[in-house]
Amino acid sequence: MLHGVWRPETGNGSLLLWAERLDDNQELSLNAEDLQQRLPLVKGQSETISLLLPSVDGRALRSSESSDAAVLAPTCVNALAVSPSDAMFQMLTLDPEEQMGDDLLFWQIAARFTLELLARERYVPAADDRNGSSWQPVLTGDDRNRFARMARAIPPVCRALLPHGSPPSGATVLESFLQATIDALCRQSLQRWEPSIPPRVSQGNRAQAYIWLLTLARSRSDPANGKVDQRLRGAMKKWLQPLQVVANEAFRTCFRLEAPSNPRAPWVLRFFLQSVEDPGMLVPVGQIWKQRGAGWQHVRAKQGRPQEKLLADLGLAMRVFQPLERALKTAHPEIAHLSVQQAYTFLREAGPILEESGMGVVVPHWWTKRRQGLAARIRLRPDFEPTNGHAPSLLGMDTLVRYDWQLSLGGKGVNPEEFARLAKLNAPLVRVRGEWVELNPEDVERAQKFWDKNESDTISLSKALSLAAGTSDLDGDLPIESVETEGWLNALFERDGNIPDLPQPDSFIGELRPYQRRGVSWMHFLVDRGLGPCLADDMGLGKTIEMTSLLLHMQENKTLTGPVLLICPMSVVGNWQHELQRFAPSLRVMIHHGAGRLLGDAFRQEALKHDLVISTYALTTRDRELFESMEWQGVVLDEAQNVKNSTTKQAQAVRSIKANFRVALTGTPVENRLSELWSIMEFLNPDYLGSADRFRKNFALPIERGNDAASKAQLRTLVQPFILRRVKTDPTIISDLPEKLEMKVYCSLMPEQASLYEAVVQDMLQQIESSVGIQRKGLVLSTLTKLKQVCNHPEHLLRESKPLTSRSGKLARLEEMLDEVMAADDRALVFTQYAEWGKTLQQYLRERTGKDVLFLHGGTPRHIRDRLVHRFQTDRRGPNIFLLSLKAGGTGLNLTRASHVFHYDRWWNPAVEQQATDRAFRIGQTKNVQV
Prior knowledge:
Elements: E1 2-9, E2 12-19, H1 32-38, E3 44-56, E4 59-60, E5 71-82, H2 84-93, H3 102-119, E6 123-128, E7 132-137, H4 141-153, E8 161-162, H5 170-189, H6 203-217, H7 230-240, E9 251-258, E10 267-275, E11 282-284, H8 285-290, H9 294-302, H10 306-320, E12 335-338, H11 340-356, E13 360-362, H12 365-368, E14 374-382, E15 400-409, E16 412-414, H13 416-424, E17 429-432, E18 435-438, H14 441-453, E19 458-460, H15 461-469, E20 480-485, H16 487-494, H17 514-527, E21 534-535, H18 543-556, E22 564-568, H19 573-583, E23 589-591, H20 600-607, E24 612-616, H21 617-622, H22 624-628, E25 632-638, H23 649-655, E26 659-665, H24 674-684, H25 692-706, H26 709-719, E27 723-724, E28 740-741, H27 751-768, H28 773-792, H29 794-798, H30 809-823, E29 828-832, H31 835-849, E30 854-856, H32 862-874, E31 881-885, H33 886-889, E32 900-903, H34 910-917, E33 929-930
Parallel strand pairs: 9-13, 14-20, 21-26, 21-27, 22-24, 22-25, 23-24, 25-26, 28-33, 29-31, 29-32, 30-31
Antiparallel strand pairs: 1-2, 2-5, 3-4, 3-5, 3-8, 6-7, 9-10, 10-11, 10-12, 14-15, 15-16, 15-19, 17-18
Helix pairs in contact: 2-5, 3-5, 4-5, 15-26, 17-18, 24-25, 25-26, 27-28
């Protein structure tokens, strides 16, 4: 476990890194050589340090240990002393998987605080006797409060370095860290900087000023660093005075800006004393000057000599905001009158500086909550209304959409004439319908460019969708405030309740549920406009039936004029064939699979005689040229997550197939990475989300690494029109589905398993000491796999062909639960991720129960798969137990005869297990399902 302690030094410091041993070794820390190997990128000096640590009988306790008898005692550890700049690098680049102590975690937080202060320019140059020339942090307002919280929360071990007399306070250690790291990083960034002296500096002071500026960019070890002229130190102290905040004061000087209701009247800046504890308490300075009133009594009780403080603060504020000078010429200033330009300067420049200096600033609510100053409102309307069932070839993402736009200023719509009148005022703040808004010259220029570049009144549908998501602007660099839609565009953007329901096809044998009719209507709505829908309903809600109904609707409306290609996993070809025969016998279906499948002209001629051609993902690469040679009316991907990796030949082959429409069916549009969503959307609506690299930069990285809310909202807006997701647990979708009862069954390891488990762990620990990087991660992953196999059964790992009985706690518990299943004449699905173990388990359960046990895995031929599923579902005297490999049997199968689901070994991704469970928990299930 890595640790770190900060050693304060005058104007500097160093981070001391050390590693705690977690084994039984008597030494608490790694030796210097091993520590350097553990941290190969660390540039540090090896040394032995003494820490005051909890100890019992002279032995320091490990981090995982505790004892009521522990006392603090000096303990020597081997450490690497790291400079402040290198310490920052280490804190921000340590592997997240590295085990770290509370002390090092604290310094990581402190390092991020340093970066934030640097990014917000919360630092100043300084010169004093103690530190010489230096860069120092400026802590005011929220930063000061954050510093205080961190100082109070600092782990005690961060203050345990000896010898230093009594341990330093948390504030002392943290202040030293911030000062040293900010100073080091500022100097590092100025290494090649050559200072220049302004002409206004007198000749006599130029040499001293040059030396001081030069030492700010040089190493702290530079001999000139401590030689700062006394006059310069005095001048620096005076220059920094406006930024100095007196600690522990109960009240602070506050300025409140008030906007006039009459645009010709002056703005008013009022002065107050504001309670630090209760910022809502403002005491008018008139009470302070007159020394009477309730506010004055409260201030006098908590603040000594408030008049002097007020005068001093007003004098400092005048140096920041010159318009205060006239008000301060009165004996007891209470307000300052400002012009519009002066008020704008206060809002934009002076106010934030005063606030950062520790004073209070209250501005009008419309300024703090103001919308985008100048923006555009867009209204979109269709360029056409499609004829039912016909999708012209120019539709899709290239569909032309008409748009109108209007300028918006401060959330208020303005016409060109009104905007021109406001622009002529040449004022940074203008009144629009009774409210003040910001209007600067740059806004006026952008508005003119916007007018010039947006003379056309049509854009593509893809552009319109990007506008709505906020990922694109119209020409002219104006942000989009709002997007309104009309006609079918409103249905596309809003979806709920705006898409007319299609009637159930007359040729459909059965009855569609209401949500299924809505799903069919939604798919038809998009397909009819040349757009690609992704039906992402929960497993078991009937995506197969919905797609079948869409094809029947097209057939009845005589728009099914050519064959549709359906691509699915081999394991579900039989299920599709069965469902189509049952619900849509009028559809002519062709199966393209197996060694005897038709090729060349024979295939093309036969395909043209059918409404639907069903093939598999495996054949998309082998028969790519064959599929590309056809003009398909549509391409449908079932279990579309099979093309989640966009760079595979399979995904590329699927995207190359030409078709008038495309549909994707999947219960899991995203399993692990957002790139999977991009791959499916690229099939459905090519180029809509941009290139893979652009998508990764704009969405995948910000969302997956930074959980960026804005990126998530934009992506959701972009894809929402094309993805329909309903879940079984939503009672508004389906109310008659039985319950799913999930429970975890904990099993004890048998003695042989426990011994083998320990051996695997020890073997890993021995190897991991000498492993680094990807080799280390690979070792951990392979060990986890071995441990899972041990938990399954020792035979799974050892493969010794010994009897299985009484060697695995997990297998014994499975046998007990399967006995209950068979006693009740129920049926069960047993999933395992290991096909080889499944074969062993099948043979064992057959011998133990004396009954047949079915097993479906990736190597099972299609006709045998169909026979196994049919037998399990329909044969009343058929087997009670159906073993399935998780990958081969986890999707596309209807196994509602089972009311028990066992996951013998757990998969890394819960979504995959959920899919497998949904083989039984789906429409058609009449019993509660126990998982």
